[in-house]
From TrEMBL:
This is histidine kinase. It comes from Lachnospira intestinalis. It is an enzyme of class 2 (transferase). It catalyses: ATP + protein L-histidine = ADP + protein N-phospho-L-histidine. The keyword Phosphoprotein applies.
Amino acid sequence: MFKNLKPDRLKIVKFHKKSLPELVRLVFRKLKSARVRLFMILAVFSIVPLYFVDVMIPYYYRSSMIKDRKADLQTKAAVVAGEYADFESLAEAEKAGMYNQMVRYSAFETMRIRVINTNFVIQSDSYSFETGKTIINSRVISACNSKKSFSGYDKTTGTIETVVPLYNKNNELMGVLSVGVDVSEIDKFQSEVSYRTGIIRTALVTILLAGAYIISKLYGKTLRKQFHTVEEIANGHTEKRLSIKGDTQLQDFARNFNLIMDKASVLDESRQEFVSNVSHELKTPITSIKVLADSLNLQEDVPIELYKEFMQDIVNEIDRESKIIDDLLSLVRMDKPSGAMNISSVNLNELMEIVLKRLKPIAQKKNIELLFESFRPVVAEIDEVKFTQVVSNLVENAIKYNNLDGWVHVALNADYQYFYVRVEDSGIGIPKENQDMVFERFYRVDKARSRETGGTGLGLAIVKKIILMHHGTIKMHSEEDVGTTFTVRIPLNYVQSDTEQEGRLS
Protein backbone atom coordinates (compact mmCIF):
# COMPACT_ATOMS: atom_id res chain seq x y z
CA MET A 1 0.00 0.00 0.00
CA PHE A 2 2.82 2.36 0.85
CA LYS A 3 5.27 1.24 -1.85
CA ASN A 4 4.77 4.30 -4.08
CA LEU A 5 4.80 6.83 -1.23
CA LYS A 6 7.81 8.96 -0.53
CA PRO A 7 9.49 8.56 2.90
CA ASP A 8 8.24 11.93 4.20
CA ARG A 9 4.65 11.15 3.13
CA LEU A 10 4.91 7.74 4.74
CA LYS A 11 5.83 9.43 8.01
CA ILE A 12 2.79 11.70 7.73
CA VAL A 13 0.49 8.70 7.23
CA LYS A 14 1.97 6.96 10.27
CA PHE A 15 1.58 10.13 12.31
CA HIS A 16 -2.10 10.39 11.42
CA LYS A 17 -2.57 6.76 12.40
CA LYS A 18 -1.34 7.55 15.89
CA SER A 19 -3.01 10.93 16.21
CA LEU A 20 -6.55 9.65 16.95
CA PRO A 21 -5.62 7.67 20.10
CA GLU A 22 -3.43 10.56 21.19
CA LEU A 23 -6.33 12.96 20.67
CA VAL A 24 -8.71 10.71 22.62
CA ARG A 25 -6.19 10.40 25.45
CA LEU A 26 -5.71 14.18 25.48
CA VAL A 27 -9.49 14.75 25.67
CA PHE A 28 -9.84 12.32 28.57
CA ARG A 29 -6.88 13.94 30.29
CA LYS A 30 -8.54 17.33 29.95
CA LEU A 31 -11.83 15.98 31.29
CA LYS A 32 -9.99 14.65 34.34
CA SER A 33 -8.35 18.00 35.07
CA ALA A 34 -9.45 19.88 38.17
CA ARG A 35 -10.30 22.97 36.12
CA VAL A 36 -12.73 21.13 33.80
CA ARG A 37 -14.30 19.22 36.69
CA LEU A 38 -14.77 22.43 38.66
CA PHE A 39 -16.37 24.09 35.62
CA MET A 40 -18.74 21.15 35.15
CA ILE A 41 -19.69 21.09 38.84
CA LEU A 42 -20.37 24.83 38.91
CA ALA A 43 -22.35 24.62 35.67
CA VAL A 44 -24.48 21.68 36.81
CA PHE A 45 -25.20 23.03 40.27
CA SER A 46 -26.12 26.45 38.92
CA ILE A 47 -28.01 25.63 35.71
CA VAL A 48 -29.98 22.56 36.84
CA PRO A 49 -31.69 24.39 39.74
CA LEU A 50 -32.41 27.29 37.41
CA TYR A 51 -34.14 25.02 34.88
CA PHE A 52 -35.98 23.26 37.70
CA VAL A 53 -37.30 26.59 39.02
CA ASP A 54 -38.16 27.70 35.49
CA VAL A 55 -40.31 24.61 34.95
CA MET A 56 -41.86 24.35 38.40
CA ILE A 57 -42.88 28.00 38.88
CA PRO A 58 -45.23 28.10 35.81
CA TYR A 59 -46.60 24.67 36.76
CA TYR A 60 -47.44 25.70 40.30
CA TYR A 61 -48.73 29.08 39.09
CA ARG A 62 -51.07 27.36 36.61
CA SER A 63 -52.23 24.83 39.23
CA SER A 64 -52.90 27.62 41.69
CA MET A 65 -54.88 29.64 39.11
CA ILE A 66 -57.02 26.63 38.18
CA LYS A 67 -57.65 25.84 41.84
CA ASP A 68 -58.76 29.41 42.51
CA ARG A 69 -61.08 29.39 39.45
CA LYS A 70 -62.59 26.10 40.62
CA ALA A 71 -63.38 27.53 44.03
CA ASP A 72 -64.83 30.69 42.46
CA LEU A 73 -66.94 28.66 40.04
CA GLN A 74 -68.32 26.48 42.83
CA THR A 75 -69.44 29.58 44.71
CA LYS A 76 -71.18 31.06 41.65
CA ALA A 77 -72.81 27.71 40.81
CA ALA A 78 -74.15 27.47 44.35
CA VAL A 79 -75.60 30.99 44.07
CA VAL A 80 -77.41 30.14 40.82
CA ALA A 81 -78.64 26.80 42.18
CA GLY A 82 -80.04 28.62 45.20
CA GLU A 83 -82.35 30.62 42.90
CA TYR A 84 -84.14 27.42 41.84
CA ALA A 85 -85.02 26.47 45.44
CA ASP A 86 -88.07 28.77 45.32
CA PHE A 87 -89.88 26.73 42.61
CA GLU A 88 -91.73 23.44 42.42
CA SER A 89 -90.12 22.33 39.17
CA LEU A 90 -87.73 23.32 36.43
CA ALA A 91 -90.64 24.21 34.13
CA GLU A 92 -92.11 26.56 36.74
CA ALA A 93 -88.70 28.19 37.17
CA GLU A 94 -88.35 28.71 33.46
CA LYS A 95 -91.85 30.26 33.22
CA ALA A 96 -90.90 32.61 36.03
CA GLY A 97 -88.03 33.95 33.91
CA MET A 98 -85.12 31.98 35.38
CA TYR A 99 -83.83 31.15 31.90
CA ASN A 100 -83.50 34.81 30.91
CA GLN A 101 -81.87 35.60 34.23
CA MET A 102 -79.49 32.66 33.74
CA VAL A 103 -78.54 33.92 30.23
CA ARG A 104 -77.78 37.41 31.55
CA TYR A 105 -75.74 36.00 34.43
CA SER A 106 -73.86 33.73 32.03
CA ALA A 107 -73.00 36.62 29.72
CA PHE A 108 -71.92 38.81 32.63
CA GLU A 109 -69.63 36.17 34.18
CA THR A 110 -68.44 34.75 30.82
CA MET A 111 -69.46 31.21 31.64
CA ARG A 112 -71.84 28.57 30.26
CA ILE A 113 -74.77 27.44 32.42
CA ARG A 114 -76.86 24.35 31.67
CA VAL A 115 -79.86 22.98 33.57
CA ILE A 116 -80.22 19.18 33.32
CA ASN A 117 -83.23 17.24 34.60
CA THR A 118 -83.15 13.87 36.32
CA ASN A 119 -83.47 12.11 32.96
CA PHE A 120 -80.14 13.66 31.88
CA VAL A 121 -81.86 15.87 29.33
CA ILE A 122 -80.64 19.45 28.99
CA GLN A 123 -83.62 21.56 30.04
CA SER A 124 -81.97 24.88 29.19
CA ASP A 125 -78.56 26.06 27.91
CA SER A 126 -77.32 29.63 28.25
CA TYR A 127 -75.56 29.17 24.90
CA SER A 128 -78.72 27.55 23.33
CA PHE A 129 -76.55 24.90 21.65
CA GLU A 130 -77.65 21.74 23.38
CA THR A 131 -81.18 22.42 24.66
CA GLY A 132 -83.26 19.23 24.55
CA LYS A 133 -80.27 16.96 24.07
CA THR A 134 -79.34 14.10 26.37
CA ILE A 135 -76.00 14.44 28.13
CA ILE A 136 -73.77 11.58 29.25
CA ASN A 137 -71.31 13.12 31.67
CA SER A 138 -69.64 11.39 34.63
CA ARG A 139 -69.93 14.43 36.86
CA VAL A 140 -73.62 14.90 35.97
CA ILE A 141 -74.38 11.25 36.64
CA SER A 142 -72.44 11.32 39.93
CA ALA A 143 -74.20 14.50 41.08
CA CYS A 144 -77.62 13.01 40.33
CA ASN A 145 -76.87 9.73 42.06
CA SER A 146 -75.01 11.02 45.11
CA LYS A 147 -76.70 14.44 45.32
CA LYS A 148 -73.31 16.08 45.84
CA SER A 149 -71.35 18.75 44.00
CA PHE A 150 -68.48 17.78 41.65
CA SER A 151 -65.81 19.89 39.94
CA GLY A 152 -63.19 19.03 37.35
CA TYR A 153 -60.72 20.41 34.81
CA ASP A 154 -60.66 19.13 31.24
CA LYS A 155 -57.16 19.57 29.79
CA THR A 156 -58.24 18.83 26.21
CA THR A 157 -60.91 21.53 26.07
CA GLY A 158 -59.30 23.84 28.62
CA THR A 159 -62.50 24.22 30.64
CA ILE A 160 -63.48 23.91 34.30
CA GLU A 161 -66.89 22.40 35.03
CA THR A 162 -68.82 22.42 38.30
CA VAL A 163 -71.98 20.34 38.69
CA VAL A 164 -74.33 20.99 41.66
CA PRO A 165 -77.71 19.36 42.45
CA LEU A 166 -80.92 21.45 42.08
CA TYR A 167 -83.58 21.14 44.78
CA ASN A 168 -87.13 22.52 44.73
CA LYS A 169 -88.80 24.24 47.64
CA ASN A 170 -89.83 20.80 48.97
CA ASN A 171 -86.18 19.83 49.04
CA GLU A 172 -86.69 17.33 46.23
CA LEU A 173 -84.09 16.79 43.50
CA MET A 174 -85.19 18.41 40.23
CA GLY A 175 -81.94 17.90 38.35
CA VAL A 176 -78.42 19.35 38.28
CA LEU A 177 -76.84 22.63 37.31
CA SER A 178 -73.69 22.48 35.14
CA VAL A 179 -71.53 25.59 35.10
CA GLY A 180 -68.49 25.70 32.83
CA VAL A 181 -65.82 28.30 32.17
CA ASP A 182 -63.06 28.49 29.60
CA VAL A 183 -59.63 28.89 31.22
CA SER A 184 -57.53 28.71 28.06
CA GLU A 185 -56.40 32.27 28.82
CA ILE A 186 -54.43 30.78 31.72
CA ASP A 187 -52.48 28.63 29.25
CA LYS A 188 -51.93 31.64 27.00
CA PHE A 189 -50.68 33.66 29.95
CA GLN A 190 -48.46 30.78 31.01
CA SER A 191 -47.00 30.54 27.50
CA GLU A 192 -46.25 34.25 27.52
CA VAL A 193 -44.66 34.01 30.97
CA SER A 194 -42.61 30.97 29.87
CA TYR A 195 -41.42 32.86 26.80
CA ARG A 196 -40.29 35.84 28.86
CA THR A 197 -38.72 33.69 31.56
CA GLY A 198 -37.00 31.70 28.80
CA ILE A 199 -35.24 34.87 27.67
CA ILE A 200 -34.26 35.65 31.26
CA ARG A 201 -33.19 32.02 31.76
CA THR A 202 -30.98 32.09 28.68
CA ALA A 203 -29.32 35.28 29.90
CA LEU A 204 -28.82 33.85 33.39
CA VAL A 205 -27.41 30.58 31.99
CA THR A 206 -24.95 32.56 29.88
CA ILE A 207 -23.89 34.61 32.89
CA LEU A 208 -23.58 31.51 35.09
CA LEU A 209 -21.53 29.63 32.48
CA ALA A 210 -19.28 32.65 32.03
CA GLY A 211 -18.89 32.92 35.82
CA ALA A 212 -18.16 29.19 36.13
CA TYR A 213 -15.56 29.48 33.35
CA ILE A 214 -13.87 32.47 34.98
CA ILE A 215 -13.82 30.83 38.43
CA SER A 216 -12.47 27.55 37.03
CA LYS A 217 -9.85 29.43 35.02
CA LEU A 218 -8.67 31.39 38.06
CA TYR A 219 -8.60 28.19 40.12
CA GLY A 220 -6.76 26.39 37.32
CA LYS A 221 -4.25 29.25 37.10
CA THR A 222 -3.43 28.86 40.80
CA LEU A 223 -3.06 25.09 40.37
CA ARG A 224 -0.84 25.49 37.31
CA LYS A 225 1.50 27.78 39.21
CA GLN A 226 1.75 25.30 42.07
CA PHE A 227 2.26 22.34 39.70
CA HIS A 228 4.93 24.28 37.81
CA THR A 229 6.77 24.85 41.07
CA VAL A 230 6.46 21.14 41.93
CA GLU A 231 7.89 20.23 38.50
CA GLU A 232 10.82 22.59 39.05
CA ILE A 233 11.49 20.98 42.44
CA ALA A 234 11.28 17.52 40.82
CA ASN A 235 13.81 18.67 38.20
CA GLY A 236 16.33 19.54 40.91
CA HIS A 237 15.49 23.08 42.07
CA THR A 238 14.97 21.90 45.66
CA GLU A 239 15.35 25.39 47.07
CA LYS A 240 11.96 26.46 45.62
CA ARG A 241 8.78 26.36 47.71
CA LEU A 242 5.03 26.54 47.00
CA SER A 243 3.29 29.84 47.62
CA ILE A 244 0.70 29.84 50.42
CA LYS A 245 -2.20 31.07 48.27
CA GLY A 246 -5.63 29.90 47.13
CA ASP A 247 -8.36 28.23 49.14
CA THR A 248 -7.86 26.65 52.56
CA GLN A 249 -7.13 23.18 51.17
CA LEU A 250 -4.50 24.51 48.76
CA GLN A 251 -2.87 26.51 51.55
CA ASP A 252 -2.77 23.43 53.80
CA PHE A 253 -1.31 21.38 50.95
CA ALA A 254 1.34 24.04 50.24
CA ARG A 255 2.31 24.28 53.95
CA ASN A 256 2.62 20.52 54.32
CA PHE A 257 4.54 20.18 51.05
CA ASN A 258 6.93 22.97 52.07
CA LEU A 259 7.36 21.33 55.47
CA ILE A 260 8.27 18.02 53.80
CA MET A 261 10.78 19.79 51.55
CA ASP A 262 12.28 21.66 54.53
CA LYS A 263 12.70 18.38 56.40
CA ALA A 264 14.20 16.78 53.30
CA SER A 265 16.66 19.68 52.99
CA VAL A 266 17.63 19.37 56.65
CA LEU A 267 18.06 15.61 56.18
CA ASP A 268 20.17 16.15 53.08
CA GLU A 269 22.38 18.66 54.90
CA SER A 270 22.62 16.24 57.82
CA ARG A 271 23.73 13.46 55.48
CA GLN A 272 26.33 15.67 53.84
CA GLU A 273 27.61 16.72 57.25
CA PHE A 274 27.58 13.10 58.39
CA VAL A 275 29.66 12.01 55.38
CA SER A 276 32.06 14.87 56.03
CA ASN A 277 32.34 13.95 59.71
CA VAL A 278 32.83 10.27 58.93
CA SER A 279 35.58 11.12 56.47
CA HIS A 280 37.25 13.39 59.00
CA GLU A 281 36.95 10.95 61.90
CA LEU A 282 38.28 8.02 59.87
CA LYS A 283 41.06 10.06 58.38
CA THR A 284 42.38 11.44 61.69
CA PRO A 285 43.64 8.12 63.15
CA ILE A 286 45.10 7.12 59.78
CA THR A 287 46.96 10.44 59.59
CA SER A 288 48.31 9.90 63.11
CA ILE A 289 49.43 6.36 62.25
CA LYS A 290 51.17 7.61 59.10
CA VAL A 291 52.96 10.39 61.00
CA LEU A 292 54.16 7.94 63.68
CA ALA A 293 55.28 5.37 61.10
CA ASP A 294 57.11 8.00 59.03
CA SER A 295 58.86 9.25 62.17
CA LEU A 296 60.17 5.74 62.85
CA ASN A 297 61.23 5.22 59.24
CA LEU A 298 63.13 8.52 59.04
CA GLN A 299 65.17 7.83 62.17
CA GLU A 300 68.16 5.50 62.30
CA ASP A 301 69.05 3.36 65.27
CA VAL A 302 65.74 4.12 67.02
CA PRO A 303 65.95 3.25 70.73
CA ILE A 304 63.80 0.31 71.66
CA GLU A 305 61.96 2.41 74.26
CA LEU A 306 60.99 5.04 71.66
CA TYR A 307 60.06 2.32 69.18
CA LYS A 308 57.75 0.69 71.73
CA GLU A 309 56.22 4.06 72.62
CA PHE A 310 55.48 4.86 68.97
CA MET A 311 54.09 1.38 68.34
CA GLN A 312 51.81 1.72 71.38
CA ASP A 313 50.54 5.03 69.97
CA ILE A 314 49.90 3.33 66.63
CA VAL A 315 48.00 0.54 68.40
CA ASN A 316 45.91 3.16 70.24
CA GLU A 317 45.03 4.90 66.97
CA ILE A 318 44.13 1.55 65.40
CA ASP A 319 41.86 0.81 68.39
CA ARG A 320 40.28 4.23 68.00
CA GLU A 321 39.72 3.58 64.28
CA SER A 322 38.22 0.19 65.07
CA LYS A 323 35.85 1.68 67.65
CA ILE A 324 34.64 4.31 65.16
CA ILE A 325 34.01 1.62 62.54
CA ASP A 326 32.16 -0.58 65.06
CA ASP A 327 29.95 2.33 66.10
CA LEU A 328 29.24 3.21 62.47
CA LEU A 329 28.31 -0.38 61.69
CA SER A 330 25.99 -0.41 64.71
CA LEU A 331 24.24 2.73 63.47
CA VAL A 332 23.95 1.35 59.91
CA ARG A 333 22.43 -1.88 61.16
CA MET A 334 19.95 0.00 63.35
CA ASP A 335 19.00 2.38 60.51
CA LYS A 336 17.67 -0.51 58.44
CA PRO A 337 13.85 -0.90 58.67
CA SER A 338 14.26 -4.63 59.16
CA GLY A 339 16.85 -4.20 61.92
CA ALA A 340 16.66 -7.29 64.13
CA MET A 341 15.29 -6.89 67.65
CA ASN A 342 15.90 -9.88 69.89
CA ILE A 343 13.10 -9.25 72.40
CA SER A 344 12.87 -11.20 75.65
CA SER A 345 11.63 -10.68 79.23
CA VAL A 346 14.57 -9.29 81.22
CA ASN A 347 15.02 -8.57 84.92
CA LEU A 348 16.20 -4.96 84.71
CA ASN A 349 17.37 -4.82 88.33
CA GLU A 350 19.89 -7.60 87.71
CA LEU A 351 20.93 -6.20 84.31
CA MET A 352 21.62 -2.73 85.76
CA GLU A 353 23.69 -4.17 88.63
CA ILE A 354 25.82 -6.18 86.18
CA VAL A 355 26.47 -3.14 83.97
CA LEU A 356 27.36 -0.89 86.90
CA LYS A 357 29.63 -3.55 88.40
CA ARG A 358 31.55 -3.68 85.11
CA LEU A 359 31.92 0.13 85.02
CA LYS A 360 32.87 0.51 88.68
CA PRO A 361 36.66 0.23 88.06
CA ILE A 362 36.47 3.18 85.62
CA ALA A 363 34.69 5.26 88.28
CA GLN A 364 37.21 4.31 90.97
CA LYS A 365 40.08 5.69 88.87
CA LYS A 366 38.52 9.19 89.26
CA ASN A 367 37.27 8.48 92.80
CA ILE A 368 33.67 8.85 91.59
CA GLU A 369 30.87 7.45 93.70
CA LEU A 370 28.66 5.14 91.58
CA LEU A 371 25.28 4.61 93.25
CA PHE A 372 22.36 2.45 92.01
CA GLU A 373 18.83 3.01 93.38
CA SER A 374 15.97 0.61 92.57
CA PHE A 375 12.45 1.39 93.77
CA ARG A 376 10.83 -1.96 92.85
CA PRO A 377 11.52 -5.15 90.89
CA VAL A 378 11.11 -4.45 87.18
CA VAL A 379 10.74 -7.04 84.40
CA ALA A 380 10.33 -5.71 80.83
CA GLU A 381 10.35 -6.93 77.24
CA ILE A 382 13.54 -5.51 75.70
CA ASP A 383 16.52 -6.40 73.54
CA GLU A 384 18.98 -7.19 76.33
CA VAL A 385 22.16 -6.59 74.32
CA LYS A 386 21.01 -3.29 72.85
CA PHE A 387 19.60 -1.96 76.14
CA THR A 388 22.85 -2.91 77.91
CA GLN A 389 24.60 -0.67 75.38
CA VAL A 390 22.23 2.20 76.32
CA VAL A 391 22.97 1.95 80.04
CA SER A 392 26.71 1.44 79.45
CA ASN A 393 27.00 4.51 77.20
CA LEU A 394 25.01 6.80 79.52
CA VAL A 395 26.85 5.75 82.69
CA GLU A 396 30.26 5.71 80.98
CA ASN A 397 29.68 9.26 79.66
CA ALA A 398 28.59 10.36 83.14
CA ILE A 399 31.91 9.02 84.49
CA LYS A 400 34.14 10.32 81.69
CA TYR A 401 32.77 13.87 81.73
CA ASN A 402 32.69 14.15 85.53
CA ASN A 403 34.92 15.90 88.02
CA LEU A 404 37.31 14.17 90.36
CA ASP A 405 35.61 12.99 93.57
CA GLY A 406 32.23 13.41 91.88
CA TRP A 407 29.21 11.13 91.87
CA VAL A 408 26.92 9.29 89.42
CA HIS A 409 23.44 8.22 90.54
CA VAL A 410 21.48 5.64 88.52
CA ALA A 411 17.79 5.05 89.34
CA LEU A 412 15.29 2.45 88.11
CA ASN A 413 11.53 2.77 88.55
CA ALA A 414 8.30 1.69 86.81
CA ASP A 415 4.55 2.20 86.68
CA TYR A 416 1.79 0.07 85.13
CA GLN A 417 2.87 0.94 81.56
CA TYR A 418 6.51 2.15 81.42
CA PHE A 419 9.83 1.70 83.16
CA TYR A 420 12.17 4.64 83.79
CA VAL A 421 15.96 4.86 83.99
CA ARG A 422 17.57 8.05 85.27
CA VAL A 423 21.33 8.69 85.03
CA GLU A 424 22.43 11.79 86.97
CA ASP A 425 25.97 13.09 87.44
CA SER A 426 27.86 15.96 89.05
CA GLY A 427 29.95 16.58 85.96
CA ILE A 428 30.91 19.54 83.80
CA GLY A 429 27.46 19.88 82.21
CA ILE A 430 26.56 20.90 78.68
CA PRO A 431 26.22 24.53 77.50
CA LYS A 432 22.63 25.47 76.71
CA GLU A 433 23.42 26.36 73.08
CA ASN A 434 24.79 22.84 72.48
CA GLN A 435 22.07 20.81 74.16
CA ASP A 436 19.86 20.42 71.06
CA MET A 437 22.74 18.78 69.14
CA VAL A 438 24.08 16.20 71.62
CA PHE A 439 22.18 13.34 69.97
CA GLU A 440 23.52 14.18 66.48
CA ARG A 441 26.09 11.84 64.99
CA PHE A 442 29.73 12.87 65.55
CA TYR A 443 28.64 15.96 67.49
CA ARG A 444 30.88 16.67 70.48
CA VAL A 445 30.72 19.66 72.78
CA ASP A 446 34.45 19.65 73.53
CA LYS A 447 36.23 17.81 70.70
CA ALA A 448 39.65 17.97 72.30
CA ARG A 449 38.42 16.50 75.59
CA SER A 450 36.37 13.88 73.72
CA ARG A 451 39.47 12.62 71.95
CA GLU A 452 41.34 12.49 75.26
CA THR A 453 38.61 10.29 76.73
CA GLY A 454 38.33 8.18 73.58
CA GLY A 455 34.94 9.50 72.48
CA THR A 456 33.78 9.16 68.87
CA GLY A 457 30.70 11.40 69.02
CA LEU A 458 28.45 8.44 68.16
CA GLY A 459 27.54 7.17 71.64
CA LEU A 460 24.46 9.30 72.30
CA ALA A 461 23.27 8.87 68.69
CA ILE A 462 23.37 5.10 69.21
CA VAL A 463 21.59 5.47 72.57
CA LYS A 464 18.73 7.47 71.06
CA LYS A 465 18.38 5.09 68.12
CA ILE A 466 18.13 2.03 70.41
CA ILE A 467 15.56 3.77 72.62
CA LEU A 468 13.46 4.69 69.58
CA MET A 469 13.65 1.07 68.42
CA HIS A 470 12.08 0.17 71.79
CA HIS A 471 9.36 2.82 71.14
CA GLY A 472 10.71 4.86 74.05
CA THR A 473 11.88 8.43 74.68
CA ILE A 474 14.96 10.06 76.18
CA LYS A 475 15.13 13.52 77.73
CA MET A 476 18.10 15.51 78.95
CA HIS A 477 18.52 18.29 81.51
CA SER A 478 21.94 19.88 81.98
CA GLU A 479 23.57 22.89 83.60
CA GLU A 480 27.19 23.91 83.18
CA ASP A 481 29.42 23.10 86.19
CA VAL A 482 26.39 21.50 87.92
CA GLY A 483 25.76 18.26 86.07
CA THR A 484 23.60 16.40 83.58
CA THR A 485 20.56 14.15 83.93
CA PHE A 486 19.30 11.73 81.28
CA THR A 487 15.81 10.23 81.74
CA VAL A 488 14.77 7.21 79.66
CA ARG A 489 11.17 5.99 79.36
CA ILE A 490 10.38 2.66 77.63
CA PRO A 491 7.17 0.56 77.53
CA LEU A 492 7.22 -2.53 79.71
CA ASN A 493 5.63 -4.55 76.90
CA TYR A 494 7.22 -4.38 73.47
CA VAL A 495 4.78 -3.95 70.55
CA GLN A 496 6.14 -4.81 67.14
CA SER A 497 5.52 -2.13 64.50
CA ASP A 498 4.09 -2.83 61.03
CA THR A 499 7.47 -2.08 59.42
CA GLU A 500 9.21 -4.63 61.64
CA GLN A 501 6.56 -7.23 60.89
CA GLU A 502 6.99 -6.66 57.14
CA GLY A 503 10.77 -6.92 57.55
CA ARG A 504 10.46 -10.27 59.33
CA LEU A 505 8.03 -11.63 56.76
CA SER A 506 10.29 -10.62 53.90
